[in-house]
Amino acid sequence: AQTVTQSQPEMSVQEAETVTLSCTYDTSESNYYLFWYKQPPSRQMILVIRQEAYKQQNATENRFSVNFQKAAKSFSLKISDSQLGDTAMYFCAFTVGNAGNMLTFGGGTRLMVKP
Amino acid sequence: DADVTQTPRNRITKTGKRIMLECSQTKGHDRMYWYRQDPGLGLRLIYYSFDVKDINKGEISDGYSVSRQAQAKFSLSLESAIPNQTALYFCATSETGTGHTGELFFGEGSRLTVL
Question: Which residue of chain B is at minimal alpha-carbon distance from A36?
Answer without folding.
Answer: B103
